[in-house]
Specification:
The chain is of the alpha+beta class and 1320 residues long. Helix content is 26%, strand content 25%. It is built from 30 helices and 55 strands. Strands 11, 16, 19, 20, 21, 22, 23 and 24 form an eight-stranded mixed β-sheet that branches. Strands 30, 31, 32, 33, 34 and 35 form a six-stranded mixed β-sheet that branches. It has a six-stranded mixed β-sheet with strand order 41-42-36-45-43-44. β27 and β28 (611-615) form a beta hairpin. The longest helix is centred in the first third of the chain and has 28 residues, at 12-39. It is flat. The N and C termini lie far apart (96 Å). The relative contact order is 0.05.
């Protein structure tokens, strides 16, 4: 029971039911409201964002009740697009000029129906800038009103994708729009140029110092405008004026740094803020000489102290007076692990005297002897502005690293300095803190920002580059450093890296404490400067507004006379009409003399697909470009094309949704492909309708028309289903089709066997190559044309071949040689056919070379190859030595050029095809400029239907690339592709005497067949020259996979031919390097060799001996050197003489091996042995001995120690060893080897963790554990560190301590430094 309103008890059940009834009533009321709203008419609003506040402009749709007030509409739009309500306008956008429309009233309670919105229709609105200012993003605004973490955060603000102060620590990032609006604090930030946060911190501190700012304002610049650029005080004046008056969030400091004489590289160099403070003050003193401000720095920042030494025997005291601009305070005393707890404690330590005794005794002038003495510092005078530097950067001599001390050190808001001075002073020495410069990061780099107290309102602010925000005293305490918990010795390593680095206090003296000058108190020259800067800022704002409202879009135009596509950029204000934009584009493209203005128009264009999206109607000429283009954007999804016409033509209308089709007319009689004409079609059109459309455009009958769509490379599709749509056939925005309409019988043939298909196939696959021949190529003296008439007479060539002078002096025409060889080839071909009829399936590879000879082209090619082989044999017989020397010199050239033989399948994928080509009768002029001899027709090989390109499986498995079978005969090719070559005059600069060929070839030809076609021009067999592909950077890579096609090549690629023997089947090209284990550079290239499958290591060594003697000057015997595996620079497995390549040793293309010269007989006899390289470390001498090889019979650690004991004489129980790190020779600094390596691992075998020594070539360091490490003085250590650093850098190995080379901080008073004088 519970009491009711009348204090009577009522049952609990009654109360439950009454509460339930009230809930039902409330829900019913809400449902009725919803029902009434559902019955209310709705208004569809479509709002397009036309501002530039976001990268991508949004388009939102709202379906609102008709009674919705305008005020609520603005709120909904703001919520949807993420803008702050009240920072944008809404105007009507139903095809009306936006500039002429009055914005809707965002405060009105009028319903949208009353405001002119229509029910049942689309109501278009444009979201625009308000009063010329772009909308504020909601996240940005919320950040300005929030008093939470964002407002209070003072640390370095990380950002993505921005340039920070170092690699590890970065500064706050701001969008361009955020820089335009001033911070809510009223203060202006400074833009970080790259790593100038240290400069920004100091400049903001000086700006917030009333005495410095007022004195700077009183100085007047009286020189010329040219000298103003390099005047540091004047540029500081300008900067301070901008910081005080600018409406921007942040301003640039580039003018100030330019006055320092710095270039852009200085912005990427971080310096110490205390160092900058001193250098800047020196520069200002120099510039202010003989002015009222000449002594300003000393008056504000300079103090005095006495440096004294007092004899403890006679009391005599020697001293000198020194001045200081800042007081450096030690964080942690030298040799101590405990830091000072506070600034006061560090100041007491600063003036704490030390006793000079023992070897450090002081020579007393009065006692005339060395005596114990007390040495110390006494403060005589403190400056008005007291600067304390907390020395957080130190050098750790144990690790030889620069470190940062992050220990906690407190500092008071008010500091009484009277306890630190001996001189009695009636004036108060109470200082108040007003600036804390904070460093966040490590000794390697970090980020600076400043916490500064304003003397106007006593409020603390964080000046973090562009960002200025309010902070509290609690935030200042966070910069003390240290960690929340105690971690003992390592507390500094785990402490926060954000801590105070410089403190600036001001003396509390009402008679001297100044206030900032008010505007009416400014000197006249500052007032003029303020006006000047305001005018410049207004101009910049207007220009920025113009830029922000300017549409920038790619513009193209096909020149009406030259017929070349021109490209430019069209920049047009969003309020300019389409008609005005055409005039601007007309002038930009400079076609006034070629076509009148009224014959030009702008259309939407897609450059990538070469597609005209749509044209604009005449009624759209007066519509602003901003509306037509969908707003001002940084990038558009389309381009613009300035289309032209002749005066008697009419522009075609391009509607959205149409597709562009380029139509090429094919003439089978002349075998030509005409240039394209463009037609536009719809994807829902049928093929029959499409043919009718083309028929009108090209004036060919549609009834006999064949249409072939080229969807992609080698995909030619016949469109023969009349009722199928273009979309179903695969049409896209831009398409290419070939059409042919004739009454020939070719229409009745199967498409893939038709003349039309052959013509288009070769049109798509022929490429143009430029081939550079060897300078003294025997075949370069004659010219060869591979095309010939259909008469079949192999001797009747289109062009007579030149006569070739043989090596024996006789003259014989190539034509005669070809005729003589024809009979041989015919008889051989007949023999092959007979063997085929007899069902002999085991045809030789040589026979297959001539299996498909059906055209004069094949005969000519084969005859030329036969003649070339005969010619080459004559050359070799007549002068074999000359030929060998020529081949060797080519190899030497390749070595000098360091050209690697990179497989073509690594550079690009191959494209295999089963399509064959032969020569047809008539010439075919093509659109790509090839003449009538450039293209041949093609057919499918019945024998290869359904199969891939022929590959030799044995070749594929072995990984070799040979054009020879096991008997050494040429495998050739059964697939004959089109090939035509003719001399070509290369450009100047390609090398005097260089012979070039212009080659048109079917790119489906294999490299092997391509080389055979080149034989007559090179003058040697294809097995004796190599093909190098030349890339854009003039790098050359050898093409070695002979069974791959030229599909990776494209038009105008360059090829270089070099003499040198190609590989036979089962052979591999091997690079041989000499291993020099005790030389600074242990890896030295010797020569290129050829190893064969099945060859033993001893046989390869025998073949290497004469080459080593002739090419390298190494006169060796076969038992005095070994070959071993090479992995990068690491020596690996030792190859034994009986090892067989491909059976015991895996070998591959471009293989590399080490050749190691032995001091004595070979110790490695079996694979069970293990050869390691040992090196003794002598800690008492700080040096390493030379390498010595140790051969082990097993992987036992005990055996390794025994062997090391034998070669070193160290007792077995004193042997300690460690495995080397990194690549051979595992170099390490002698300053680190004693501590850094994992000495004496607790393992019994070498093949387990952490050693994992399972192969030859591992590096082992060993030492005598009883040998003590020598103690070095600081000077010796520094000297040794320099030597080691130099040694390791020369050998190209890692240097553990390699600090970033810092550029000295300088301010150049006479302009930028001379580059020659600043070279290191």
């Amino acid at each position: 029971m519970v009491p009711n309103e009348e204090n009577q008890l009522v049952p609990k059940e009654d109360m439950f039911w009454s509460c339930r009834q009230s809930l039902f009533d409330e829900m019913k009321k809400k449902f009725s409201q919803i029902e009434s709203a559902a019955d209310e008419p709705r208004v569809l609003c479509i709002i397009q964002d036309t501002t530039n506040s976001k990268t991508v402009n949004e388009r939102i749709t709202l379906n609102l009740p008709a009674s919705t007030p305008l005020r609520r509409l603005f709120e909904d739009v703001a919520s949807k697009v993420g803008y702050v309500n009240g920072t944008f306008d809404l105007v009507w956008g139903n095809g009306i000029n936006v500039a002429d429309m009055t914005p809707l009233d965002q405060t009105s309670d009028k319903s949208i129906l009353e405001a002119g919105f229509e029910v049942g229709k689309k109501n278009f609105l444009h979201l625009t800038d308000k009063d010329g200012e772009q909308p504020h993003l909601m996240s940005e605004e919320s950040g300005t009103t929030d008093d939470g973490n964002q407002e209070r955060f003072i640390g370095p603000l990380p950002r993505e994708g921005s340039v920070g102060c170092t690699n590890d620590y970065v500064c706050q990032n701001y969008s361009y729009s955020s820089i335009l609006s001033k911070s809510e604090t009223g203060y202006v930030g400074l833009v970080n140029q790259a790593m100038t946060c240290y400069l920004n911190s100091l400049l903001q501190t000086l700006f917030m110092t009333p005495e410095f700012r007022n004195a700077l304002y009183k100085w007047e610049f009286e020189e010329s405008e040219e000298e103003a650029v390099m005047s540091i005080p004047y540029q500081l004046q300008r900067l301070f004026v901008l910081l005080q008056t600018s409406k921007k969030r942040a301003i640039e400091t580039t003018d100030v740094t330019r006055s320092f004489g710095w270039d852009s590289s200085e912005a990427w160099q971080q310096h110490d803020v205390q160092e900058l403070c001193r250098v800047m003050f020196d520069a200002l003193e120099q510039k202010w000489k003989q002015t009222e401000q000449a002594d300003l720095i000393n008056q504000l920042y300079q103090g005095k102290l006495k440096d004294y030494v007092r004899c403890l025997e006679c009391g005599y005291e020697g001293w000198r007076i020194d001045t200081y601009l800042d007081i450096p305070l030690v964080i942690r005393p030298y040799g101590s692990n405990q830091a000072f707890a506070s600034v006061e404690e560090a100041l007491h330590a600063f003036i704490q005297p030390e006793i000079l005794d023992g070897p450090n005794q002081y020579f007393c002038e009065r006692c005339k002897k060395k005596c114990d003495a007390r040495k110390g510092l006494r403060f005589l005078h403190f400056p008005y502005l007291l600067t304390l530097q907390l020395k957080r950067f130190d050098f750790d001599y144990t690790t030889m690293h620069r470190i940062k001390l992050n220990d906690r050190m407190t500092f008071p808001e008010e500091l009484d300095m009277s306890t630190f001075i001996d001189v009695e002073d009636e004036n108060s020495l109470l200082y108040e803190l007003f600036s804390v410069m904070v460093h966040s990061g490590s000794a390697a780099g970090g980020h600076y920002y400043a916490c500064i107290k304003s003397f106007n309102d006593e409020q603390w602010y964080s000046f973090n580059d562009q960002h200025v925000s309010k902070i509290t005293q609690e935030d200042i305490k966070k910069t003390y450093g240290g960690s929340s918990g105690s971690r003992g010795y390592y507390s500094s390593a785990f402490a926060s890296s954000t801590n105070a680095y410089m403190l600036i206090y001001r003396l509390k003296d009402p008679t001297r404490n100044a206030k900032f000058l008010e505007v009416n108190e400014y000197p006249e020259h500052i007032k003029q400067l303020v006006r000047k800067e305001k005018e410049l800022e207004e101009q910049e704002k207007k220009q920025r507004e113009i830029e922000r409202n300017t549409c920038k879009i790619k513009l193209f135009c096909m020149h009406p006379v030259k017929q070349i596509m021109m490209e430019n950029k069209l920049e047009v204000h969003k309020d300019k009409t389409l008609k005005e934009a055409v005039e601007i584009a007309y002038k930009i493209m400079d076609i006034e003399e070629a076509v009148p203005l009224d014959c030009c128009r702008l259309v939407k264009y897609d450059e990538f697909h070469d597609y005209l999206e749509r044209s604009f109607e005449e009624e759209e000429e007066d519509i602003p470009m901003g509306l037509l283009l969908g707003g001002v954007k940084s990038t558009y999804m389309f381009d613009l094309l300035l289309e032209t016409r002749t005066p008697d033509q009419v522009f075609q209308c391009y509607k959205p949704g149409e597709v562009m089709v380029k139509v090429h007319v094919v003439d089978l009689k002349t075998e030509s492909v005409a240039p394209s004409i463009s037609v536009r079609a719809y994807l829902n059109q049928t093929v029959t309708e499409f043919k009718q459309l083309i028929s009108k455009a090209v004036r060919l009958p549609a009834e006999t028309m064949r249409v072939i769509l080229e969807r992609c490379y080698n995909d030619l599709r016949l469109l023969n289903v009349g009722n199928k749509t273009l979309k179903a056939e695969g049409f896209f925005r831009s398409n290419k089709v070939f059409v042919e309409s004739s009454e020939s019988l070719d229409r009745q043939m199967a498409y893939t066997d038709s003349h039309l298909w052959k013509l288009l196939d070769r049109h798509a696959n022929t490429i143009r190559l430029y081939v550079s021949l060897p300078e003294q190529s025997p075949g370069s003296q004659f010219k060869r044309t591979v095309n010939q008439k259909a008469s079949g007479d192999s001797g009747n060539l289109d062009e007579a071949c030149a006569r070739v002078k043989g090596p024996l002096g006789n003259m014989r025409s190539v034509e005669a040689i070809l005729e003589e060889s024809t009979e041989k080839l015919k008889s051989l071909s007949l023999q092959q056919e007979q063997e085929g009829d007899n069902g002999d399936s085991s045809k030789s590879t040589e026979a297959s070379d001539f299996e498909n000879i059906e055209s004069p082209l094949n005969e000519v090619d084969s005859l030329a190859s036969a003649e070339n082989r005969e010619l080459e044999n004559q050359i070799q017989i007549s002068d074999p030595e000359n030929f060998q020397s020529e081949e060797r010199s080519d190899s030497d050239v390749n070595n000098d050029r360091s050209t690697s033989s990179v497989d073509s399948d690594i550079l690009s994928s191959s494209h295999s095809s089963d399509t064959l080509c032969n020569v047809d009768n008539a010439p075919i002029p093509l659109a790509n400029g090839l003449d009538s001899h450039s293209i041949t027709s093609s057919r499918r090989s019945k024998a290869n239907e359904g199969k891939k390109e022929t590959w030799d499986t044995a070749e594929e498995d072995s990984g070799t690339d040979s054009e020879y079978d096991e008997s050494g005969k040429s495998t050739g090719e059964a697939q004959y592709m089109y090939f035509k070559a003719e001399p070509y005059a290369a450009d100047e600069g390609s090398g005097e005497g260089q012979k070039w060929l212009l080659v048109h070839v079917d790119k489906r030809i294999t490299l092997s067949a391509f080389k055979q076609h080149l034989e007559p021009f090179v003058g040697v067999l294809s097995s004796h020259f190599k093909v190098f592909r030349v890339y854009a950077s003039n790098q050359e890579f050898e093409s070695v996979r002979l069974n791959e096609t030229l599909s990776s090549f494209s038009d105008d690629n360059k090829i270089t031919i070099r003499l040198g023997r190609a590989l036979k089947k089962g052979e591999y090209r091997v690079k041989v390097y000499q291993l020099l284990i005790n030389e600074p550079e242990p890896c030295k290239f010797l020569l290129d060799a050829v190893f064969a499958k099945g060859m033993t290591v001893r046989q390869s060594k025998e073949e290497l001996l004469p080459q080593l003697r002739e090419q390298c000057g190494l006169d060796l015997t076969i038992d005095r050197f070994r070959l071993r595996k090479k992995t990068w620079k690491n020596p690996g497995t030792v190859f034994l003489d009986y090892h067989v390549y491909e059976e015991d040793i895996n070998i591959s293309s471009n293989w590399e091996v080490f050749l190691e010269i032995l001091d004595g007989a070979e110790k490695m006899k079996s694979m069970s042995q293990l050869a390691v390289l040992s090196r003794r470390w002598r800690p008492s001498e700080m040096k390493l001995d030379s390498f010595q090889e140790v051969v082990l019979e097993s992987s036992s650690v005990d055996e390794l120690k025994e062997k090391l004991s034998e070669i070193s004489g160290i007792p077995l129980e004193y042997i300690e060893f460690a495995k080397g790190r990194g690549t051979f020779p595992c170099d390490i600094s002698v300053l680190e080897i004693h501590q850094d390596l994992d000495w004496n691992p607790k393992v019994s075998t070498l093949n387990v963790w952490p050693l994992y020594i399972c192969d030859d070539g591992a590096v082992i360091f060993y030492r005598d554990k009883t040998e003590e490490l020598i103690e070095l003085t600081d000077e010796q250590r520094n000297e040794l560190m320099k030597k080691e650093s130099s040694r390791l850098q020369k050998t190209g190995h890692r240097v553990t301590y390699s600090p970033r080379k810092e550029k000295a901080l300088k301010i150049y008073l006479d302009g930028a430094p001379n580059k020659e004088s600043t070279q290191d």
